[in-house]
């Protein structure tokens, strides 16, 4: 999310600015409707599914050209069973989603050695943020075969290391994120359908360790936008299932509006329909408080926080102490995810989270303690409430070139909290 995606960062900061009292930027307050069952069906969802298929079919070619009969070989676990096997996971961020190519944002190509390093350190899964639109023909939505093969190679690296892997469509230039409205709904759903038919077909022979996620941080903050977002989620699910084979049973992930814990409760209207039973997960992200975890300079709506947690406030720089979003807020939000989703049989992944060190604090010991503690506490409370944590990393934790651990304090905190050491 951070350090290469300025458009998305500014979007998140804007959310924080409008909701600073209750917690913006990937968090949320309780209240409103619950998530419902993982394969729940409603008349509105069914209508959305059928209209998705009909209205979007004519804009691009049909890429579901070789559907297979459903095949449960290697994909027998439910979403809940899979989530129970993942205690700690990490993103390979600012890489395959980079606009301009895999190395455009300063990271080297992903290698088998890098993936093996994550495995050896104790991670159970990798999230691969991925771009597709820049590799696609804008008239036909046909994705480059070279890019599809490259993604398949990286997924195979994860399989070789016996890691679960979450592959998504990330911000990707905003082709979906900038069009969550009724006017653009048909055209955007058509591209969602075309892309996922190609991705799912190309990768459908992988076993259940490969999980697809339909979006990243879709910015929906009203009931009307939530309705359109659910339409896009339904399009994603229908497109993947239509390709058959193992994709008929593969676990899929849909995102909370803004991947916000608050909107997950106040705006979410229930899981989309699915022909497979108990094969859906729900995704939230967590960068709260945004002044501590996201922003890198003071904003008109608030100053950066350098110090977080009950024992880490600074007397040297008291105006930089966190004034909201501390332990009690983490507790509240993670419990809300448990109550509204996990306890209802819907596994939740925290697909991104993290806070990183700054060089400008005057009280560096307190700041460094704050950062380590934030990462430990959020991981701890996520796991305690059945939420699967995927740390966001763009090379600050593991040096992508040398494979050296760059922040042993954070890594040790994560591993200890997850019971890995």
Automatic annotation (TrEMBL):
Residues 1-16 form the signal peptide. The keyword Hydrolase applies. Residues 93-395 form the Glycoside hydrolase family domain. Residues 39-56 have a biased composition (Low complexity). One of its GO terms (molecular function) is beta-glucosidase activity. GO terms for cellular component: cell surface; extracellular region. Transmembrane segments: none annotated. It comes from Asticcacaulis taihuensis. Belongs to the glycosyl hydrolase 5 (cellulase A) family. PANTHER family: ENDOGLUCANASE, PUTATIVE (AFU_ORTHOLOGUE AFUA_5G01830)-RELATED, GLUCAN ENDO-1,6-BETA-GLUCOSIDASE B. GO terms for biological process: cellulose catabolic process. This is Cellulase (Glycosyl hydrolase family 5). Keywords: Carbohydrate metabolism, Cellulose degradation, Glycosidase, Hydrolase, Polysaccharide degradation, Signal. Residues 24-38 have a biased composition (Gly residues). The keyword RNA-binding does not apply. Residues 24-57 are annotated as: Disordered.
